[in-house]
Specification:
The complex is a heterodimer of chains A (216) and B (207).
Chain A (H helix, E strand, L loop, with lengths): L7 H29 L1 H4 L13 H7 L4 H4 L14 H8 L10 H9 L19 H6 L4 H5 L16 H9 L22 H11 L8 H4 L2
Chain B lengths: L1 H20 L42 H5 L19 H19 L8 H5 L11 H5 L3 H9 L13 H14 L7 H22 L4
Helix pairs in contact in B: 3-7, 6-7
Classes of the chains: A mainly alpha (216), B mainly alpha (207).
């Protein structure tokens, strides 16, 4: 009677052991790495808008504070998309006749809002509130990056839950004085661990890591 | 047995296709909760003719905040004093709001020497330190911040009535002294420069 398992089955046995490890450990690990990769989180992907609005011109060139246009950031869950009437008073002289500005003119004439494309998007099961973050000393820049250097705005942060938690666990490493919230390229005047610890006390910043903080 | 399996598979496939092509499921959401059936602020809606979820309140609506202040009663533009206690906190708030919403055009020191002003044509944003403005009652500043004037838009959506009074209080305080910070001195210098350029242009008959 020949052997029940010929010699080549040794290779199969070893290969299947390796395959099992790859399947059980490698595939989930690869998938977990993938969902965090910039390609999957859509990080750094410039989002084309109905108008070629350039933040650099307005922030660096004209010294306009973020809150001039995103006016509800301190009292609402959303930062606020400026209505067409924010653009028009200044641009009644410059650019209003240009083709770049045509969507704004149409919006003004037809009294329909401009349809800006969302850049920083969270899933429907995440309840984010701008006001509480800004009022507790989280800078615009901390999540949105150097918008003052972006020709077309892109998502600067990975927006994964781990990324949110990195600050929710250790807010002292990220908070800044309220007066500097909209500053771009902010550098703390004292070491962050000193200033962070002081601001956390002063602003009553808590470490909120409960699921229900964000998921309701 | 095999027949039952085939029938079952066919049903599942048919069901899958049926689901994905129905109008409610235009976008296949494999995670189900990622896109939820609710309206978020600034979202689109097919329920209104302008396509927006957020709608303007009906004409003539008065917010409780507005009704609670003097704004709704006596016309604010003739008020000669600020209808609330001018505290250091109010002035600090006014200074901060001024920096965000007013300094953009009127300059950080109120001289009218902002970069926006220098890029604009005539009429440019005026200085807030002029004798003409000082001669007006302080309620006028509140009134202009509320309703706008000339090319200046109304700032009522951005500034609450209390904030507008805070800004008015800060402007009033600012008018009592000259430029104190480097930013304000730069504003003053640029305002002078703009004024000089405008007068030369006017003298040469250029617009």
């Amino acid at each position: 009677m020949p052997a029940l398992f010929p010699p080549w089955t040794n290779v199969v046995a070893r290969a299947s052991l390796i395959a099992a490890v790859v399947l059980v450990v490698g595939v989930p690990a690869a998938l977990m790495a993938w969902v965090r990769a910039p390609n999957a989180t859509r990080r750094y992907e410039p989002v084309a808008q109905p108008i070629a609005f350039d933040h650099r011109v307005h922030v660096v060139g004209e010294h306009i504070d973020c809150r001039y246009c995103h006016f509800s950031v301190e009292r609402s869950s959303t930062a606020g998309i400026p209505p067409t009437s924010t653009c028009v008073p200044c641009h009644s002289q410059t650019l209003l006749g240009s083709s770049t500005f045509a969507p704004v003119r149409r919006s003004m004439e037809a009294n329909t809002p401009l349809q800006w494309k969302r850049v920083t998007s969270l899933p429907g099961f995440v309840y984010f509130n701008h006001a509480i973050h800004v009022n507790k000393g989280v800078g615009c820049e901390s999540c949105h990056g150097r918008v003052d250097q972006m020709a077309t705005v892109y998502q600067a942060a990975p927006l994964t839950m781990g990324w949110c938690l990195s600050c929710h666990r250790y807010p002292a490493a990220f908070v800044r004085p309220r007066a500097e919230v909209t500053a771009m390229g902010y550098a703390p005047r004292q070491p962050q661990r000193v200033i962070g610890a002081r601001l956390v006390r002063e602003y009553h910043v808590r470490r909120l890591t409960n699921c229900t903080t964000c998921h309701r | 047995m095999t027949r039952a399996l085939i029938a079952g598979c066919a049903l599942m496939i048919a069901g899958g296709i049926g689901c994905t092509t129905s109008p409610e499921r235009e976008r296949v959401d494999f995670e189900r909760m990622r896109v939820q059936q609710r309206y978020d602020l600034y979202g689109a809606s097919r329920a209104f003719p302008n396509g927006a979820m957020m709608q303007h309140p009906p004409a003539g609506t008065v917010s409780r905040e507005t009704a609670a202040t003097a704004e709704a009663g006596a016309p604010a533009d003739s008020l000669a004093s600020i209808p609330m206690a001018v505290t250091p906190q109010l002035l600090a708030r006014g200074r901060e709001r001024f920096g965000i919403y007013c300094a953009v055009c009127h300059g950080p020191g109120g001289y009218g020497g902002s970069i926006v002003a220098s890029n604009m044509g005539i009429p440019r944003p005026p200085s807030l330190r002029s004798a003409a403005l000082r001669a007006r009652p302080i309620g006028y500043v509140f009134y202009v911040a509320t309703n706008g004037r000339g090319r200046m838009p109304a700032y009522a959506p951005q500034l609450s009535p209390a904030d507008r009074w805070a800004v008015a209080a800060y402007i009033q305080q600012m008018q009592t002294h000259g430029a104190t910070t480097d930013e304000e001195r730069a504003d003053s210098a640029r305002a002078l420069e703009i004024h000089k350029l405008d007068s030369t242009a006017a003298a040469a008959g250029r617009p």
